[in-house]
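Handout, page 2. Input:
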Amino acid sequence: QSLDRRTVVVLVTAAVLVILQMKFGSRRLYRVELAPILSLPSTELFAWAWWFIMQGTLGFILPVLILKFGFSQSVEEMGLGLGDWKLAGIIAALYVPIVIIGTWVLSDGLAFQENYPHLREATTSWRTFFIYQALFLFYWVGWEYLWRGFVLFGTKHTLGLYAIFVQALPFAVLHYAKPLPEALLSVVGGVLLGALVWRTGSFWIAVPIHWVQMFSLDLFSALRIRTGVSGSGIGAFVELIRSFF
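Output:
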């Protein structure tokens, strides 16, 4: 039987792009090889910036170019249009408060405080923290588009609704090293985000949802590390604010 060329190219390319990100987007590669050769700072912040920029490039820019010039896809067909922006806005407005409460509770766990923010310097310097978060936003554009854009919209014409589950599988597997609650939630989250993007017809809704989630987890973890406040109730939150100011 004949194979659909776009579906094959998208799925194979997605796998290759992940490998390229792991190999050439490596922070170690930046520190040990690129920084000395190009006379760039070898700090952890620059190493993370390299990782984020590579993900944005390999996950967003390159896939868009492939769909646009390789398959003549329109902005809407690639999932880059506004789609049902009203529904997306309503979902985001309902989701953000839940995420903030959830990440506040999760940040009380030692496993999360040991992992977030990934850049430990961001827990002691607010300037570093916000630079890191701004770069992280470009990372999320690349991360989300690779799965919820490139794979989902690039295969929906052949896989139909099954494309939602196909894009969720590698997304979940790539969370294997995360704390167990986060790793398990990535399975559910991958399917739900894929379904939301499918329904709205645009991948953009996935970016703020994921970025706000990580930003709030990083922020609460950093505040807890700085102040030493523990507990997940309202009293602990008030104590944290008082300790910080």
